Structures are given as C-alpha cells and as structure tokens.
Amino acid sequence: MHIDIAWQDVDTVLLDMDGTLLDLAFDSHFWQKLVPETVSEQRNIPLDEAHRLIAHEYHAVQHTLNWYCLDYWSERLGLDICAMTTTQGPNAVLREDTVPFLNALKDCGKRRILLTNAHPHNLAVKLEHTGLGQHLDLLLSTHTFGYPKEDQRLWQAVAEHTGLEPERTLFIDDSEPILDSAAKFGIRYCLGVTNPDSGQADKIYQRHPALNDYRRLLPKLISKES
C-alpha cells in the first residue's frame, strides 16, 4: 500500500514505543521466554506446560489494559514483574531509524508525542536505558487515562489532553488492530511498521500502509517543509 503523506498538513506525530521506536525483541524475549522459564522454575512444572498456561493467560486479556499491566501480571503469575523488568532494562534498544526520524520531525516543527500502552514502570525503565525521552515532546502512557489504544475512549481523552487535530495527525504503530482504532477515531494518517522485532520475519498489513525504515520518509518530509 502506497505511503503518501502531505507533510505540510501534519502538525502532530503520535508514536507507539515497543516495536515502533524500540526493538520489540526485548519484549518478545521477556514475555515469551523469560516469564515462562521463571514460571516453570518457580512452580516446578515442565517448560511446555508453563508456555501453555501463560499463552492461555495472555489470550484471555488481549486488547485490554490488563494485557499491558505489570501489576496485573505480577498478581496473576505470582512473579515480581516490575523487578524483572528493571533487571532486564539494559537490554532495551532503539531502532536504528528512530533518532534520525525524530530529529527530522523536530527540525520540521512537528510535535512528537509518545503514545504507548506500556505500563508506567516499563516506560520509565526503557526511557532510562535508551534515552528515548530526549527525542520526544510529550510522553503518554494509556494507563494514566484508564483505556488502551484499542478503545475509542482513549483517543477522545488523548485528543482533549493534547489538543491534537485528528485530521492533522500521523500515527505510527506496529499493531493493525490499534491502527484500525486510530483510523476509526479519525486520525488522518495511520502507518504500520513491518519489522517491529529484529528477531522475527516481517509483518504484513492488510488495511494500512507500512514501512520498514523511517528514513525512507525523510526526503519528502524535509522537502515539503523547506
């Protein structure tokens, strides 16, 4: 699907964090490998049984705020997920194309807002180890609003909180259901990321344009604003 953004008509760029600005490999390792291994050890059950148990737990709350809530998972799994996140923090890394893109947006006068479903502790740990915060104008965790990005009430609350105009906004995320939610609210440009996880094969998007390197956007961004 062709990417055609009228940059002169864009004031605000909303950006997801995990898989969009940061390599999702951190979260894939944490939730798909470290958590099952820890559950297996603590409960003295086979690893494949731990994987099945956790897959069931994950599926039960997908697309809800609990899916992203470290407190919820600590309680459900009997683990100190916040402490584990803190320990793993140094492994969080930026995508190679993140800083060049964010710097170009700044140079062109675009407002750069992080909009993540990540729990505030998760967000704080990742900011500490990646320095991402210095490249953004505003940092928002959906937990402070009480709804995930999959919920239309979140978009209404964010629009009111930031004063953004949906028709003058670009939103980038690595989840197609979340892009659908943004588009339903009226966000004019919704863009997917085909390579959120450096350890996985590229994703295919059915309903939204997508790309694998933000630096491909820079020539038009810079020329339209010069």
TrEMBL record:
Gene Ontology, cellular component aspect: cytosol
EC number(s) given by UniProt: 3.-.-.-
Top-level taxon of origin: Bacteria
GO MF annotation, one: metal ion binding
Gene3D superfamilies: HAD superfamily/HAD-like
Any single biological process term in GO: DNA repair
Alphabetized UniProt keyword annotations: Hydrolase, Metal-binding
Keyword Signal: no
Keyword Hydrolase (UniProt): yes
PANTHER family: GMP_IMP NUCLEOTIDASE YRFG, PHOSPHOGLYCOLATE PHOSPHATASE
Protein name according to UniProt: Putative hydrolase
